[in-house]
Write a structure and sequence with these properties.
lipoprotein, two-stranded antiparallel sheet, globular, MlaA, Surface lipoprotein, mainly alpha, signal
Length: 270
C-alpha cells in the first residue's frame, strides 16, 4: 500500500492547509445580517483558491478526462457500460454495508447484504444486477455521510484537484475509505495493487461518462459554472445524508440507476 499512502498523503496535505486558511478567513461584520446570511449560505471562504483548483480541473477534464469518457462511450456499447457499472457497484457493497451499520440503518444494511449476495452469486460477481428486479434496489453510503450522521459538521466548501467538489468532512471520509476498502486491502495483500488502480480508473471513467450530457447542459445554462456546481454538490450531499428524506428538494442518491445522478443534477439546475 506504499504507493496508495503516498497518493493519499499528497491529497491530505493541501486539504489540511486549506482548512487552516479557512479558519483564519474573516467573515462579514456581525451587524451586517444580510452579508452574514449570504456568507453562511455559500460557505466558501476559500473561493479564490477553490476557483483556481476548479480551473485546473476544467483543463484536465477538457484535455484528458472528458475525451476519455467520450471515447469510452463511443467504443463500449451501452450493454457493456452497464455491466461495468454493475460490477463496480457490487465491489463497493462492503463499504456501503459498513456505513449502513455505522449509521444505525439496520434495514438498509440488510438490504445491502442480500443485494450483494444475490448479485455476487446469481449475478456472476455483479455482472448482472438480479437484485433490483427482485425488489432490492441499490443505494450508496460513504464514511463522509456517516460522519455527518454522527454530528460532524461539513466545514468550508473545498474544490479538490481531480476529485472535485468536497469539504473537510467528506475528504476525511474519502481518505478513510481509501485505507479501509476490503477489496483494495485484499489486492494489496496479494501484491496485485494494479487491479485496485484499474478499478479506480474505471470508476472515474464510469462516473464521468454518466455525466457527459448533464454537465454539458449545466455548463451551457449556468451564468457561473463554478457556483452552480458548488450549490448542486451541497444540495446533493444534504439529500444523501438524509437518505432522500426531507430537507427540501429530494435528490436521489447516486447509483440508483445509470442516469440517476445526471437526472438529479439536471433537475436541480433548472
Amino acid at each position: 500500500m506504499n504507493a496508495s499512502r503516498r497518493t493519499i498523503a499528497r491529497l491530505v496535505a493541501p486539504v489540511l492547509a486549506l482548512a487552516l486558511v479557512a479558519g483564519c478567513a474573516t467573515p462579514p461584520p456581525a451587524d451586517d445580517k444580510e452579508a452574514v446570511a449570504e456568507w453562511e449560505q455559500v460557505n466558501d471562504p476559500l473561493e479564490p483558491m477553490n476557483r483556481a483548483v476548479f480551473d485546473f480541473n476544467r483543463a484536465a477534464d477538457k484535455y484528458a478526462i472528458k475525451p476519455a469518457a467520450e471515447g469510452y462511450r463511443a467504443v463500449m456499447p451501452k450493454f457493456g457500460r452497464e455491466r461495468v457499472h454493475n460490477i463496480l457497484t457490487n465491489l463497493n457493497s462492503p463499504l456501503t454495508f459498513a456505513n449502513d451499520v455505522l449509521q444505525g440503518e439496520t434495514d438498509r444494511a440488510v438490504q445491502t447484504f442480500f443485494r450483494a449476495m444475490l448479485n455476487t452469486t446469481f449475478g456472476l460477481g455483479g455482472f448482472i444486477d438480479v437484485a433490483t428486479p427482485a425488489g432490492i434496489p441499490p443505494h450508496e453510503e460513504d464514511f463522509g455521510q456517516t460522519l455527518a450522521v454522527w454530528g460532524v459538521g461539513e466545514g468550508p466548501f473545498l474544490m479538490l484537484p481531480i476529485f472535485g467538489p468536497s469539504n473537510p468532512r467528506d475528504t476525511v471520509g474519502l481518505v478513510a475509505e481509501m485505507f479501509a476498502d476490503p477489496f483494495d486491502l485484499a489486492m494489496a495483500n496479494m501484491g496485485k495493487e494494479y487491479i485496485s488502480y484499474t478499478r479506480m480508473g474505471l470508476t472515474g471513467l464510469d462516473k464521468r461518462e454518466g455525466l457527459l450530457d448533464t454537465l454539458d447542459e449545466i455548463e451551457r445554462t449556468s451564468l457561473d459554472y463554478y457556483a452552480s456546481l458548488r450549490s448542486l454538490y451541497r444540495q446533493h450531499r444534504s439529500s444523501e445524508i438524509k437518505n432522500g428524506r426531507g430537507g427540501g428538494e429530494k435528490i436521489p442518491a447516486p447509483g440508483l440507476s445509470r442516469t440517476s445522478k445526471g437526472e438529479e443534477l439536471s433537475q436541480s439546475a433548472q
